[in-house]
Amino acid sequence: MNFATFHDLAGQSVFVTGGGSGIGAALTEGFLRQGCKVAFVQRSDADEFVKEMAGATGNRPLFLPCDITDIAALRAAMDTAAAEHGPITVLVNNAANDLRHGLEDYSPEEWDKAQDVNLRPHYFTIQKAAPGMRAAGGGAVINYSSISYMMGNGGYVSYATAKAGITGLTRGLARELGPDGIRVNALMPGWVLTEKQMEMWATAEDLAAMMDRQCLKTHLKPEDVVGGTLFLASQASRMMTGQALVIDGGVVVTG
After folding, report:
1. What CATH number does domain 9-247 carry, 3.40.50.720, 2.60.120.970, 3.30.70.980, 3.20.20.70?
2. What does the domain layout of the chain look like in residue ranges?
3. Residue 39 in contact with residue 60, Cβ under 8 Å?
């Protein structure tokens, strides 16, 4: 898939959470192809992905193994990324886990664990990146939320709650950081069919039901959200902040 080129992104220091698989891998590749200096974290090994990207794009990403629930380790990874690539000027909070669960037997510990993955890191990555962005004269933050909380779906309430929280976080920090030239926006994907989604959740019935709701009759793939992310990172969207950009094939705005 060919993406539009945003010339101002070339040379930018980009940091992506969960950037070695699923949507995150597509985002890493998209930024690499813009000529960005990309660092990413994730818990699982991504060495083969790094080699693949270096060969495919001629631009090698920096992989920093990290469990994003460990905020100290996450901050240290961001320090390493900044030391290698310069102050982070584009931050993409992508990592998430949409684990299914019911109401009755879900413990406080499980609830906290879900928020530790799906919401808490967004706040602390922004807190860490903001001083460098401020010193650089501005920056862009893209927080991955989801249409899941807008659809009223059951079965993953902790995930949906976190995604709603991300939208609130985005709007609050857009106001707080705007005077420093730091833009904070959310991207709201529909059901993006990553390998994980196909293996774990995508039944034939659910896929058919989603297709019935979409205006555009093609299932979303990871590369379908890359262009919107690049747009929000670039100066093409320089007067956009506090916004929630929906890329879902036409579900939530049409009922």
Report:
1. 3.40.50.720
2. 9-247
3. no
Cβ pair 233, 90 in contact under 8 A = yes
Position 255 scores a pLDDT of 53
Q: Determine the pLDDT at residue 190.
A: 86
Neighbours of 250 (CB within 10 A): 14
Residue numbers of the chain with a pLDDT score lower than 50:
none
Q: What residues act catalytically?
A: 159
Distance (Å, whole) CA 176 – CA 114: 26
Q: In terms of C-beta density within 10 A (0-12 exposed, 13-18 middle, 19 or more buried), how is residue 58 classed?
A: exposed
pLDDT at 160: 94
Taking a C-beta distance cutoff of 8 angstroms, is the pair 90, 14 a contact?
A: yes
60's CB contacts (< 8 A; 6+ apart) are 50, 53, 54
User: What residue type is assigned to position 43 of the chain?
Assistant: R
- Write down the pLDDT at residue 155: 87
Looking at residue 39, its pLDDT comes to 98
